[in-house]
Amino acid sequence: MTAPGDDVDQDAMADAWAASMGGDDADGGGGGDDGDDLAAEWAAMLDSGDGGGGGGGGGAAPRESTRVLNQDEIDSLLGFDDEQDDGDQKSGIQAILNSALVSYERLPMLEVVFDRLVRLMSTSLRNFTSDNVEVSLDNITSIRFGDYLNSIPLPAMLSVFKAEEWDNYGLLTVDSSLIYSIVDVLLGGRRGTAAMRIEGRPYTTIERSLVERMVHVVLSDLSGAFEPLSPVTFRFDRLETNPRFATISRPSNAAIVARLRIDMEDRGGQMELMLPYATLEPVRELLLQMFMGEKFGRDSIWETHLAEELWMTEVELEAVLDTQTMRLGDVFDMKKGSHIDLGATPQSQVMLLCGDVPMYLGRMGRRGDQIAIRIDGRYEKPKID
Questions:
Q1: Under a CB-based contact definition with an 8 Å cutoff, are residues 243 and 228 in contact?
Q2: Do 195 and 269 lie in a common domain?
Q3: Residue 165 sits in a domain of what CATH number?
């Protein structure tokens, strides 16, 4: 027996216990395997225990506990850290998911279109509100359509519009601050006072009507911004207040979101223009091209010069009066002075060839001392039934 304060040699206890179990087996003649297993288990328990325990202590704490991540570390791992919201850089799983999205930087012409839209809106909204309006482009981002619908701050008005020539839809979101500011300005609100906001109530018919008028102005400017690149008509379709009713694409589809800031002295708000990549697909090649100035890469002087030079280019044409099929032996028998009878008559049509390509049909005649061909029309390849 040992006192509670005495140190216990754990290895010696394990050896003594194993020896005693072995002696009992030798005397008793049975249970040797069970004794060895019990001794090994006891030694393992002593090795995993705390070395500072007393003789009467039994339950020892484990050496190292499993570490649990806190909420900040989980958010950083998933890529939803608040510190990253101010920029476009993403990390963690969110970066992996967004890696499949096409960045708007691959469409350099699109940024020029949005810059042109800002200039047009600054002028048109000033005429629309009769107030000093400043429009600025905050940023252009790529996002999935489902994530965008979930990120819309409510209450808001969502305007669905259709690109007629592209046969697809887009979305224009107007936040509550801009809605109340537009209503206040159009209905003669005093300057210097903030627009009054009443939360918890639906938008009235007057508010919806005034916002719809502003949306028509913005869509007209958007058509004008795309006109130098590709003429397109954006037609207003409907106005929704519930994002679920404004679904125009699959949730997993990628889209371009341009955030516009509209300031009217001490009032204003934000407007977001969302265009799915499927909508921009018809003009994708045009959006990929590089540009110079307002002509979007076109040089009118060079185009005019090229057209003039093409009209002055000389092209050699061959007139074929008739074609015959002859045997090779008859061709070898031809000698100097041999005659070949043509099946053409003065009224027969003559084919004009440019190289091996038939171009025109005409009739043979005379102009002065030279034989000439008067062109009757283009050569049309016969249709095969």
A1: no
A2: yes
A3: 3.40.1550.10
Q: Of the candidates 265, 257, 182, which has an alpha carbon nearest to the alpha carbon of residue 216?
A: 182
Domain housing 197: 104-295
The maximal CA–CA distance of the chain, rounded, in angstroms, is: 143
Q: Are residues 180 and 225 in the same domain?
A: yes
Q: DSSP for 227-292?
A: TTT----EEEEEEESSGGGG--S-TTSEEEEEEEEEEETTEEEEEEEEEEHHHHGGGHHHHHS---
CA distance 59 to 260: 66
**Domain count across the chain:** 2
- Confirm whether 238 is domain-assigned: yes
pTM: 0.53
Residue 172 has pLDDT above 90, yes or no: yes
Single-letter residue type at 54? G
**Beta-bridge mates of residue 264:** 267
pLDDT digits (tens, 9 = 90+) for 20-65: 555 444 444 444 556 667 667 766 765 655 444 444 444 444 555 5
What does the block give as tokens for 160?
Answer: 């669905």
Q: What is the pLDDT of residues 174-196, one digit of tens each?
A: 988 888 888 888 887 665 555 55
Both 348 and 279 in one domain: the answer is no
